[in-house]
Amino acid sequence: MVLWRRSALHQLQNSIQARGLTGSFHRSKPIASTAGSDDRAKSSMSRKASPDGRSIQAFRPKKVLVLSKITRYEFEKQKQSPLTDEELAEALAKKGSNLATLKKYHDFHKEQAHNIVKSLTERKIEAHIVNRYEYGPETVKWADAIITAGGDGTFLLGASMVKDARVPIIGVNTDPRRSEGYLCLPKEDSLSFPASLDKLLDQQFRWAYRQRIRVELSGPHAMEAPVELHEQELDFPRHKFADFAVDLDDKNEEPSSKDNATSTAPGTSSQETFSRVLPECALNEVFIGESLSSRVSYYEITVDNYPAQKQKSSGVAICTGTGSRSWAFNINKLTKQATASIINIIRETSLLPIPSEDEYIEMITSRFNDKLLFDPSDERMVYTVRDPVSNRVYGAENPRGYAQRVTIKSRCSDASLVIDGGSSYKFNDGATAVFTINPEDALRTVQLL
Question: What terms describe the molecular function in GO for this protein (predicted)?
Fold first, then answer.
């Protein structure tokens, strides 16, 4: 599988170089700085003044990178490559899947991705399509804009390599019948991409900025490369660290100017302590906790300027406004069953004539859940303590709340810090992470008018 990926990357290099691009792709390296991207942005995005005097960039890209998702059909074919189509169909049938159906969805996605590239080239915009294995800092550096062809997962992957707002990213949901695509263009706009592209080129849109979480990690393992969770299942059936070990030398670069390495005080520890800002920013959320969900996570948390508190729980999720509609929402949402139980208790103890109709229960539930959502441009985070342990020693008086800055010191034995469900960093005893939102890290995308 590793050889297959390297062959694909080699072929892509030759293709890109034939188009006049330079450099090489290193999909597993930390994101590099994009020198010269200001000049590129100025040449491809013209500017005009808005009524309030601010500068507005028009969407006029010359080069667009299209990031295509790996379909389930491709995934199964790669994962079980020794099998013939007949053997694969039989193996999938045992799991309740149908190879012919997967192939149909695969073909539909490929057709939609091809239409995106065709629409761009017909409008004299150079377009190049890549998959997740070919996507990296060099491809992002080449592009004036990025279009993701897939769903929310593909959009998150695309966003992970974009360091700031200079390169806009636009999500196209290639199968809105089976995918929500909250981060992508709406269903109708995704299915009629040529018309949506014309709207973009005619400036019938507004720029939207999604804030992201910056993570500063310190500890003995802070400089180690992450495990890519999205690739583990494809590479090996269980923990799959072998592929990670093969690419480790490629992933470890010299610390950037943002990275600081310091030693611990003499006599305190034989391990060195390092510190750096992680190359990825979280668009949805960061999760911190033991790798096995059945184990209790032990840590010390500080929210803004409040006193530090030692807690035990099932982990902590810290989300953005974008992520407030994702996992964080499902962690915190109230169910109609819980609402009905609370209303019954209030009715019994207060003797008030509180309605018990389903419509009233649904209204109360919806109002509570709506308050969990906040704007993607909001420069605040929301932290959520999952299943906090409450006793005379440990507690979480406020298991959920807004924050400008969160600091977590690990007391865990086998924990991870996971960014957007993808990159997983070691976060064991002795590690510390600081979470903040910085406007310069915002992701630039669009809202069609």
Answer: NAD+ kinase activity
Q: Where are the domains of the chain?
A: 2-203, 213-223+259-332+374-442, 334-371
- pLDDT one-digit tens code per residue, 146-159: 999 999 999 999 99
CB 245 within 8 A of CB 2: no
**Could you tell me the CATH superfamily of domain 213-223+259-332+374-442?**
Probable inorganic polyphosphate/atp-NAD kinase; domain 2 (2.60.200.30)
CATH topology agreement for domains 2-203 and 213-223+259-332+374-442: no
The answer to whether residues 116 and 191 touch, using CB atoms and an 8 Å cutoff, is no
Quote the strand ranges of 304-442, DSSP E. 309-313, 316-319, 381-385, 400-403, 405-410, 415-419, 423-426, 432-437
Query: Which tokens is 72 given?
Result: 């389930």
| Spatial distance between the Cα atoms of 250 and 210, rounded to a whole number of angstroms | 30
Instruction: Quote the pLDDT of residue 232.
Output: 60
Instruction: With cut-offs at 50, 70 and 90, classify the pLDDT of residue 24.
Output: very low
Phi and psi at residue 14, to the nearest 5°: -60, -40
